[in-house]
Structure formats: C-alpha cells, structure tokens
Amino acid sequence: EEKLRSYADPAVRQKLHEEVVEHKVQVPAAGYSREWYNYMWVESPVLEKNQGLKGKTVGQIAKEQNKRVIDAFLDLVVEENLDTGFMQSENNVDDEAMAKILTYPNAIVGLSDGGAHVQFHGGYGYSTRLLSEWVREKHVMTLEHAVRRLTFDSASALGLYDRGLIRPGMAADIVIFDPDIVRPLPESVVHDFPAGGWRMKEPAAGITATIVNGEALMENGKHTGALPGRVLRNTYYRAHA
For site-directed labelling of 102, which of 83, 143, 154, 213 has its Cα 20 to 30 A away? Predict the structure, then answer.
C-alpha cells in the first residue's frame, strides 16, 4: 500500500522523472540505459483492458497515451496493483563498443553469475545471439572465429584443455546447428521449479543436437533423458586436490 501511494504521488513521479528520464540528478551507476523505457516492455498485463499493451515498450505506451514516460509506466503499475509483469533487454545497445569487446582477444564470450539469477535471468542465450546477430547479421567476426571463441578459447581460459576442439583424445562435446537459421527465440515463463515455481526460459531455433561425452543430451530442443555430464575441475584444482 505504501508503494502504491508513493507511485501515485505527483511529487514522487516528478522526482523519478528528473532522475531517470531527464537525468537532471546525478544518481549512482545502476547498469541501466539512459533510454531504458525503449528496452522495457509489458510481458504480462493483468487486466483484460490492458492485454493490448503486451509486447509494447514503456516508451511506445507513453507516446500512444500522450503521457510522460514515468506517468505511463506508473499509471499501469498502480492500476494493476503492482502485479504487471515487465521484461527488459537494455544491455549491449552500443554496437560499436560491443564489436570491439567481442573481438578483443583477451575477452571471453560468456555469462557468469553463479546461481544468483537462476529464476529471473534469460541471458543464457548469449551463444545463439552471438552466432545469429553478431556473426550472421552484423558480420563482426567469421563463423569459425565465433565457434572457437565459444569453445576452445573459453575452455582453455578456465584450464580445461581436453575439450573445445574436434580431434582424437578430446572430449566429444559437440553442438550441431544450422548457421543460416540459428537464433534465440522469445523468452517465456515456465513453471518447472519445485512447488510450481517459475523461471525464465529462452529456447533456440536451428540447433539440432547437443552431444556431451559422445552421448546425445538434447535433440531438437528436447532432453533425451540421458545424463552424460559430470563436474569439471580445472588444472589448478586437480593439482591441489
């Protein structure tokens, strides 16, 4: 109730507008784009009258309703009692900077956050996004270079020298995909956690199979039932175990 009152308060809205829309007030870096409203969209509106807003960004809604960004955003939030579901994808919007980072030889292409975002994070589609957006569409690097970046380069950086290449003696870990159509598919919510808990899922198109230790783990997006994987330890751990 306190949040609802605050979000409906014109004074609070004006302060938010100055801080995160007009950027008149210096706020600590929070990892969001200055145009966040163009990268945050309505994923799951609650009220029937608002179903037409699904998939629209906050910026689009504000323009359609002739409102300030903050007002359009918070009007919906308050009207639906804080139950509206939003999605955002505002990272890596500077193509030139991203191209430099992706091709920098000392950078690793990947995602690492432990189990912190096992429910909310959908960014694990970075590999398919690299192959589709940055290789096929934007030609930042060759397909061969991208595959090496995702496989041998990453494994070697972690001290795992027995995988990442297709050659005798290396682990038979292989992903079979079609470079012409591989791409991440839209994120969705699935309820497959204990007690019906939900998480974000980002499937992919164009991936035929994932083979782990010579055994098919995934085929056409479905788990085969096999469990061929094992915990990997880097060379430092093995040397001091």
Answer: 213
Calpha distance 123→120 (Å, rounded): 9
- Max CA pair span of the chain: 68
Q: Please indicate, yes or no, whether residues 49 and 168 belong to a single structural domain of this protein.
A: no
- Each residue's pLDDT tens digit, 98-135: 999 999 999 998 876 666 667 776 667 889 999 999 99
- Residue 175: in which H helix or E strand, if any? strand 174-177
Q: Dig out the tokens for 179 from the structure.
A: 């470079």
- From the number of C-beta atoms within 10 Å of its C-beta (0-12, 13-18, 19+), residue 7 rates as middle
Q: Specify the residue for token string 């990453």.
A: 154
Number of domains, the chain: 2
For residue 182, the enclosing domain spans: 95-240
pLDDT in tens, 48-76: 999 999 999 999 999 999 999 999 999 99
